[in-house]
């Protein structure tokens, strides 16, 4: 995995999916003032606009050259990057949540009570239904 130097912090870019295959990634490079308690001096120019890049397997993931030149020239600025996730987040529906909760509850009760699990499971299911969890 490529190592990306961000100011004085080192971050590892994670491009690996669940199967271990390398995939592409979209990111935004930006320059910000490094100290949150101060502002840049008045004689410093505005930093360059953020750049959006698409990284694929084997691409060069180093900082943009113009950003490095700017940060080297004007002390106090930091180069940063953030990944961009274009896929909307998926949420579980109520039925799926209830099914998973019931399955986890059943496993937990079976492990804890063994032979007496049926009685305890009925009690717990009723308790969960009262609070609207199942």
Task: Describe the structure in your own words.
The chain has 134 residues and is an alpha+beta fold. Helix content is 32%, strand content 22%. The strands form two sheets. The protein has a three-stranded antiparallel sheet with strand order 4-3-5. It starts with a strand and ends with a helix.
Strands of the largest sheet, in order across it? 4-3-5
Q: Radius of gyration from the CA trace?
A: 25 Å
The dominant shape is elongated
Structural class: alpha+beta
Largest sheet: 3 strands, antiparallel
Brief descriptors of the model:
single chain, 134 residues, alpha+beta, three-stranded antiparallel sheet, two-stranded antiparallel ribbon, 5 strands, 32% helix, elongated
Compact summary:
By secondary structure, the protein is α+β, with helices and mostly antiparallel strands.
Question: In terms of topology, how is this protein built?
Answer:
Blueprint: E1 3-6, E2 9-12, E3 25-33, E4 51-55, H1 65-73, E5 77-84, H2 94-113, H3 117-130
Antiparallel strand pairs: 1-2, 3-4, 3-5
Helix pairs in contact: 2-3
């Amino acid at each position: 995995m490529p190592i990306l130097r961000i100011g004085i912090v080192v971050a590892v870019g994670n491009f690996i999916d669940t199967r271990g295959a390398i995939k592409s990634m979209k990111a935004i490079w930006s320059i910000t003032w490094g100290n949150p308690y101060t502002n840049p001096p008045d004689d410093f120019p505005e930093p360059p606009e953020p750049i959006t890049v698409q990284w694929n397997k084997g691409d060069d993931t180093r900082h943009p050259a113009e950003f490095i030149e700017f940060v080297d020239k004007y002390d106090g600025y930091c180069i940063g990057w953030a990944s961009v996730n274009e896929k909307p987040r998926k949420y579980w529906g109520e039925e799926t949540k209830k099914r998973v909760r019931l399955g986890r509850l059943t496993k937990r009760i079976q492990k804890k009570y063994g032979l007496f699990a049926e009685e305890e499971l009925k009690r717990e299911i009723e308790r969960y239904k009262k609070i609207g969890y199942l």
